[in-house]
Amino acid sequence: MASTEIPIFTTPQEEIQYWKKRLEEKQQDMDDLETSFNEFQDFSKQLEEEMEEELRLCEKKCSDLQSQHARLKNDHETVLDKLNTSNRESSKLINSLQDEVTKLQAIKQTLTEDKRKLEQENDSLERRERASSASVQDLSDKLDKVMEENVWMQSELEESKQIADETIQRLRDDIRDLRLEISVRERKPTLKSSSSSSTEKPNSINTKRENPISFNIPRAQKSQRQKTEDTASSSRAGSLLVVTELINLVSDLENRISNFRLKPSNSNGNIAGTPTHDGSIAVPNPTHITYFKTYKFINKSQRVFIK
Hints:
It is rod-shaped and about 235 Å long. The protein is built from 6 helices and no strands. The protein has a domain of 162 residues. With 307 residues, the protein is mostly helical. InterPro entries: NUDE. One of its GO terms (biological process) is vesicle transport along microtubule. Keywords: Coiled coil. This is NUDE domain-containing protein.
């Protein structure tokens, strides 16, 4: 508080009045200060109570926060342990998955190569299938043609067989006649011309019937009696040779026809180049070839020996 200058008093009364006035002022100031102090005390007390209440609340809150902190710390430790465990398990799982991925990649590479090989094989098989289809079609056409030829050959074979049977029968008849003629010639080589003429006449009648391989044996004349007797032995030898050849030919024909009748399935299966199961073309049956050759030989023999 700033000090005031004391005035100069002229009289004691003025000085007293002055100091009284000053005293009253000071007293008033003191009363004001006391009132302010009391108000301040009341306010301080109220503020202290509020602060104490707030402190109590803060302490309680702090205690709660400490408890919560401890709980959260425990939870944090638990979660951290779980996290570490999960990290370890995740690492193991990641490693195993990486190994599995590596294996799967290797398997994928192998499967890709196998797929490529299978595609190549598939293309090759398709090409082979197309070639086989074309070959099958070609073989089907050939088979149809061969079947037609087979039917024709069957009909020709039946006709040839019938002709061969007829030819064999005629050959048997001719052989029987020739044997009879030879036996007659051997029994009566030195008869007279009249007896020879009477003997040769029925033989000539027998030999003149329709026969594909009968022989034209000239009739002995009376003027040629001696000549006939001289050539009797050579005629007998030639006749025996012809008869032997005819007998062998007939036996061979009978054997071949018997073989042909015993094996009809084999003969039908290989006529005229029938395709086999492996796609090759079978050659004609040698039995048929031999049969036709024999038939040609018979015709040739007929041309040689028939009159």
